[in-house]
Amino acid sequence: MEKVEIDIDGKLISIEAGDLARQAGGAVIVRQGDTMLLVTATMAGQAREGIDFFPLTVDYREKTYAAGKIPGNFFRREARPGDIETLTCRLIDRPIRPLFPKAFKNETQVVALVISHDQTNPPDVNAITGASAALMISDIPFETPIAGARISRVDGKLIFNPTYEDTANSDLNLVMAGTADGIVMVEAGANEASEDDMMAALEFGHERIKQLIEIQIKLRGLLGKEKLVVEAPQVDEELKSKIHEKTAAKLTEAMQISGKHERSDTIKQIREDFKAELSPEELEEKAGAIKELFHDLEKDIVRNLVLDKHYRVDGRGLADVRPITIQVGYLPRVHGSAVFTRGETQALVSTTLGTASDEQRIDSLEYKGTKSFFLHYNFPAFCTGEVKFLSGPGRREIGHGMLAERSLIPILPDKDKFPYTIRIVSEILESNGSSSMASVCGGSLSLMDAGVPIKAPVAGIAMGMIKDGDRVAILSDILGSEDHLGDMDFKVTGTLKGINALQMDIKIGGLSHDLMAKALEQAKEGRLHILGEMDKALQSPREEMSQYAPRIVTITVPKDKIRDVIGPGGKVIREIIDKTGVSIDINDDGVVSIASTDEDSAKRAVEFVQNLVQEVEIGKIYLGKVKKIVDFGAFVEIFPGTDGLVHISQICDRRIKNVSDEIQEGDEIKVKVIDVDQQGRVKLSRKEALRDAVATE
Description:
Blueprint: E1 2-8, E2 11-17, E3 26-32, E4 35-47, E5 56-62, H1 83-96, E6 106-116, H2 124-137, E7 147-154, E8 157-160, H3 164-168, E9 172-178, E10 183-193, H4 195-223, H5 237-254, H6 260-276, H7 280-285, H8 287-309, E11 324-328, E12 336-342, E13 345-354, E14 360-363, E15 368-371, E16 373-378, H9 395-408, E17 421-430, H10 435-449, E18 459-468, E19 471-476, H11 480-485, E20 488-494, E21 499-506, H12 513-537, E22 551-556, H13 562-566, H14 571-580, E23 583-586, E24 591-596, H15 599-613, E25 621-630, E26 633-639, E27 642-647, E28 668-676, E29 682-685, H16 686-695
Helix pairs in contact: 1-2, 1-9, 2-4, 4-12, 5-6, 5-8, 9-10, 14-15
């Protein structure tokens, strides 16, 4: 067994290997505090033939035993991965995938298991470091180590790999991965952070990433295996020259067609025309090479148009944003809606308001509780004009939805001022790049259309980059093709004041400080432009909510009165709901939320609850209802759940033999509280109530 460790800002992180999972290609244990991960990397013995992609699978699982828990489902075993696990898979996959040799086609699996969890130190960022370390000591051709880090800012101080408590108290939180030369992946959330603040956090994190890479290199030197040699594929120079000669000019012209589908159809026809000139034998023999050479030529043409002529496929300048159209209040029966269209990307976004009973229940390794705001992103095949197998949300949809959700959280009103559960759904209807950013813009507008008093509108923009040596171009509001053929996908969301979220993936070795700063500044210009267009459509949240949205009234009752509101077996609260048609939620703090689309019904329910919990006041006069007559008096209900006795001597000023001579069951009479004994029994007087009434006339 070999072990390496490093202390960074008082955080001891260790990586050990050699004892566990010895038949895997590479296996390491990464530890911080008592949080431990087993991360393995294994490849198939032979390359997969006939594929044009790298078959990499990344799986991250949080074992409940790690925290001394038993799964809460019916089967009492871990089920399919939850959203947190899915998002962590993406965090691992995105930075390592571009670093494998292009010609490497052996199926490869990276598996990260949380095997101990101290409930203090998050495991996700160390899973990134662990994946790199396992790959480095394995025989897999992975030569460029990376590391992960989480950076939070608490009271103006940046913290490396913070605890859950630190993260909860932070106003800036980012997860990043990088090589020794630069940053390759970022996921960030903030509360209107400035571009300078974000750069400072990234620089702080990268310095610590370099230290984590050093111990990986040391571990590799101690027990690393000999790497598989991957030979670069032989290029058919004759075929390459032929394709270039016959199609380059045509492809260059086609690449300047602004319409996505028209451009795609034209390019496809050029390929088919070329193939038609080949013999069936040659076409069959060289089908794979033709596809790859055409792709490389298309990539070179697009990149050179941008780098040499500053020309983009749709004719825009490098910093230009596509035309924007906006419709708000598009769906008549939903609580809030917006259609946000930017170029050939379109999102239909709706906001639904609910009650506490609609909150999402979460039971993960780190957290058990509820969530009152969530955003769901859907990307159906028709939005790109394709036909695909219909299934549930994949990793990409969950990731894009979480990015949009993280962008909107900072501008939501406080729960005590707006006690609603909020669900946003973004349906992508057309897509040609930046659909997640369209979801952010549409989500912000739909919230305002629903009358949610957000603190400020939020917009998002996707940035790209093409780099070839010293030639660099940063692109605003990238198209799908620019994302596919470029070197960077850099998404930034925020308000007029600052950044709310950031997501970045770099396909090259890393991004320098100067280029990142330039990209952030250009993103700011684009974001402000989009916010201006959104302002033209809807300047502020609507003053009135939709008539179909629930109205929620909250009142607080003493904790010892909660049982009175609920009643035995829920009898009392069910009775209130049946009589008024409202929905009622009560939390352990005594906060009662009453929701109804009918304002009068909500008021009636409030009265019911207030009557149930009010305290009897000696000397106060109540309008009560005679519930029962007995020989010695009458029992009168002064408010729901509280009766008092009016003794026969307190019925009226004169002496009577029978109570029924004066009052009957069901009568409403005014009574005065004259005493409450130690057992809580209430003594009432009709006689004194009548005297007080005469005295005030």
